[in-house]
Amino acid sequence: METKQKRWSIMFVVATIFVLNSSYYKVQGKPQVPCYFIFGDSLVDNGNNNGFASLARADYLPYGIDFPRSSTGRFSNGKTVVDTIAEHLGFDDYIQSYANASNRDILRGVNYASAAAGIRDETGQQLGARTSFGGQVNNYVSTVSQVVRILGNVNLAAHHLKQCIFSVGIGSNDYLNNYFLPDYYQTSRRFTPNQYANALIKQYSKQIRILYNYGARKLVLNGIGPIGCSPNALAQHSRDGSTCVAKINSANQMFNRRLVTLVDYFNKTLPDAKFIYINNYGIFQDLIDHPKKFDFSVTKSGCCGVGRNNGQITCLPFQTPCQHRDKYIFWDAFHPTEAANIVVGTRAYRAQSASDAYPYDIRRLAKL
């Protein structure tokens, strides 16, 4: 009898641990929308580059050191912005990468993001293989064919997709790994910053129209953050290693202003479309300007792989990162920590300031 009781006690402990781990791995709540499709770059890539011959990969420690599944390919110590938003939307797990999604998994959405990707096809080519925004859109078109096959007909697929949220966060690399890399690219000699922003928006809008033509109706267009304040920009271009680089941030804001105009244009011209803009620039600038308000203490350097005279831009494999990672805004030379991503994702979902989202936030978009 005693042996039997011990056996049941052991089984109960094991089951309890399993449940606790499952709740840690899974996000709780009923989804507010049936699916969430994600397009972007390394800020939201969750493993699509893992099999690529590329320097833009994060499938090794210390990346993912604080994520339940360890180094999945996320360029952070833990969750990304879209992981946070998925939690707020009530999904029971994070959205799978295009590289891993299959069968009925795609009905709850797919993450197509690829590190080093840009709006322009050549962007990031010096880093190796990646899937440009155009390539990601093509992958989505392929997914739609699968959705039609699973649900049985085009009408059912269209009804399903129009309820989903589509998040697009692309353009950072068109500056970081294109325009401001004159040794590799001609764009800064061919275009003024104003002309370049126009060229990017023109190509961007073509891809957005394809998404719309293939069922997307609720679209989140994410602005570019203040790239000139990243540890890499400070190390490479700031005279004192502390002051944000104005010429980079100015160019980013030119793009963002056109993105807001694009939201207005599409809302007026595309039937049944609901576009919103997330002001990542303003939200992230708030973190940098008022770190104590968010309990951050380190704003100018990354937790790993960064130094003023260090050309290293990502964490070295198995490098020991900083201890107090929740006090850092940046994880490496470009990417935020999980703590910063949670702040940005939360404010994108539920705006804390009138300037966080336009014309409204993701929470309201989900209800429409």
Query: Which runs of at least 5 residues are low in confidence (pLDDT < 50)?
Result: 1-27, 307-311
CATH class: Alpha Beta
What general outline do the C-alpha atoms trace? globular
Q: DSSP helix count?
A: 12
Strand order of the largest sheet: 1-2-3-4-7
Pfam family, one: Lipase_GDSL
Family: Belongs to the 'GDSL' lipolytic enzyme family.
Subcellular location: Secreted
GO molecular function: hydrolase activity, acting on ester bonds
Explain this structure.
41% of the residues lie in helices and 8% in strands. It is an alpha/beta fold. It has one domain (2-367): SGNH hydrolase (Rossmann fold, 3-Layer(aba) Sandwich). The protein has a 5-stranded mixed beta sheet with strand order 1-2-3-4-7. Helix 10 (280-289) crosses helix 11 (338-349). The longest helix is centred in the first third of the chain and has 24 residues, at 2-25.
Features:
12 helices; single chain; SGNH hydrolase-type esterase domain-containing protein; hydrolase activity, acting on ester bonds; 7 strands; globular; disordered N terminus; 368 residues; alpha/beta; SGNH_hydro_sf; five-stranded mixed sheet; 41% helix; secreted; Rossmann fold
Give the structure's gist in a few sentences.
The chain has 12 helices and 7 strands.
Topology:
Blueprint (H helix, E strand, L loop, with lengths): L1 H24 L10 E5 L40 H9 L43 H19 L2 H8 L3 E5 L2 H8 L7 H4 L2 H21 L4 E5 L8 H7 L8 H24 L4 E5 L1 H10 L8 E5 L25 E3 L7 H12 L7 E2 L3 H6 L1
Parallel strand pairs: 1-2, 2-3, 3-4, 5-6
Antiparallel strand pairs: 4-7
Pfam family, one: Lipase_GDSL
Organism: Artemisia annua (Sweet wormwood)
GO cellular component, one term: extracellular region
